Amino acid sequence: MPVSASTPLNKRILQASAAILVMLALAGCSTTAKDRMTTGSIPKLDKPVEQMDANELRAATDRVGQAYEKNPRDPVNGVTYANLLRMNGRDAQALAVMQQVAIANPEDRTVLAAYGKAQAAAGQLQQALDTIGRAQTPDRPDWRLISAEGAILDQMGRPNDARQRYRDALDIQPNEPSVLSNLGMSYLLTGDLRTAETYLRSAAGQPAADSRVRQNLALVVGLQGRFPEAEQIARRELSPQQADANVAYLRGMLSQQNSWQKLAAKDATSPAAAGTN
């Protein structure tokens, strides 16, 4: 996959960005407890898992894990537990959970979608693409699954195919911020920071945009050398603790080996900065 610079720092940033891209896309097509819960069969979550801090995630994972152990065949428990495990960085365990749930529920589209997400998070990209494809219904395509396919294709180094899938998703769900953000991050992965920022600003400007979209925008703005602006974006709508953590992460990514000013200059002068398709 072409990039705009060849420094070790830039490579690490692009790799981290690829992980962020997949996390955002797959979170966007997740099924929450609230979506599926009708009988109180799983512990009620106080907030979406994407908005939990580390302590809340651990506590929720323990609670849902206990419910899962009582009935590992239950698709709601399994999907929710695997999602929480992924958010805790326990990708291998999430995959093992979803393997068992998928065996018990081989025709459940929600289970297949969650299984594909777990495979992607664990690095099994082709298997994930195949599984998510089986979860799709041709006559009623799900834009979330289409966007997830795009994220996986980006991870596989196929940006042209990935961007077409994002545009297919946008045809179904126009101006969807998670898809616009994924499209922007796709351009970041090939070094076209200006185009990436255009899509990410569009995503962040949508009423349904969440903090993850704005953190992606902050990353792209910071990579172009505008760190005060990036820090301002990163602090929006977050608690002081979360904001400090995000800003510290941005600073760490942008200050190693080369300053972010030097990195931005390299991006601006590179032939690939004009964009690749």
Query: What is the H/E order?
Result: HHHHHHHHHHHHHHH
What is the average per-residue confidence, as pLDDT, rounded to a whole number?
Answer: 79
Please tally the helical runs, counting DSSP H or I stretches of 4 or more residues.
15
Oligomer: single chain
Proportion of helical residues: 55-70%
Class from secondary-structure proportions: mainly alpha
Terminal Cα span: 11 Å
Q: Judging from the principal axes of the Cα atoms, what is the shape?
A: globular
Tally the beta strands: 0
Q: Runs with pLDDT <50, length 5+?
A: 1-12, 27-40, 257-264, 266-277
The biggest beta sheet is recorded as: none
How much of the polypeptide forms β-strand, as a percent range? Answer: under 5%
**Gyration radius, in Å:** 19 Å
